[in-house]
Amino acid sequence: MKRLGALTSDQAWAEIKPWWDMVQDMAETGFFAEVDAKVSRATDGYINIRDPRTSPWWAYAQLHKAAYSLVMALVQEREITAANAKAFEKASQVLLVSDYKPRKNIVWSNWYEKVKAAIGVVQRVLTAPSKTADNKFLVGPFEVVNSVGKSSADLAPLVKLLDVVVQKVKQLPVSGLERVLYGRVMLTGQIKKNARLAAWYDIAEDQLWVRVGKYDLDFLHTVIHELGHRWWRKFASKSVKSAWEQHHLVMGFGSVEIPRLHVGDPLPIQVKGVKGNPVIVAETGKYWEIDAKDSKGRPILLDRMSVYDAMHNNAKRRLFPTLYSSTDAEEHFCEALGLWALGDLKEPHLSAIKSAVSK
Ligand SMILES: [Zn+2]
Known about the structure:
Blueprint: H1 9-28, H2 31-41, H3 57-77, H4 82-95, H5 108-126, E1 136-139, E2 142-145, H6 152-171, E3 184-188, E4 199-202, E5 207-211, H7 217-235, H8 238-253, E6 280-284, E7 287-293, E8 299-303, H9 304-319, H10 329-341, H11 349-357
Parallel strand pairs: 2-3, 3-5
Antiparallel strand pairs: 1-2, 4-5, 6-7, 7-8
Zinc ion binds at residues 1, 225, 229, 331, 334.
């Protein structure tokens, strides 16, 4: 569940404009080129990233932060035609970054050129007409807003899946759950933010967002999970919530045992690029060496604490229906609801959710 910006696109543009002006100034006065040259001269390739005289990281942070609301507002408001959908998607990928710290090896002049192109596209979309009714269609109780300029053939699989979602939600024996079946479903492309997610629910706007083109079982689970948030926030009774919170607490306090490992033991976790369970052959400092080599033929060293972390996560995953469920009672409920709808919820969670929703 993510909050999306509540600004209109004009307001969002007014927010980003001063930062964009400043970044353009920096480019025109040669600041980016100067920093790039300094980085390449520095023997260790490092300059003080927190010093505004040597690093434009703060301009980067402000610009990308402001860009988020702008992109979200444009997707909601403006007609994004098939002709500029691709360019807009690319621009979104440039502007939406997963955190507001530049990569260590960023080349500032290249960054500027990319952002400049992206802002150009955004400005074009800003002056595009507002969305028309032609862009909207009904799937059962949902009004789907085709904000990605896709053809109806492209969207056929999505329509089918939304139909399945509606059926599944109606089948679950949760009183009042069918009340979540209403409202707008906004479509989005491969924007970088939330790239892993097939869907998310914007609480402030009470609106469901769905990613186009990621259609699998995960899609069904995620959309039902997000509708679970709507139910939890708007319709779940206090007694249901407190029964479920009780279950969440009991699970959370369940003890997980993490055995200590020693040289000679097989690793109880998977290591990327290594088949099976390699054996620990040596212990050096905070690392274990395992009897496997990386792609360059070097022995693989693993941070011992990271191994224990992974073991802890695996153990927790066994206490909860999914690892993410351990986040909080609400996320746990939504995860369980999604699995339940797909017939994948195991005990003791199945009995727990059945009992909680009957309260
Ligand atoms: Zn969630």
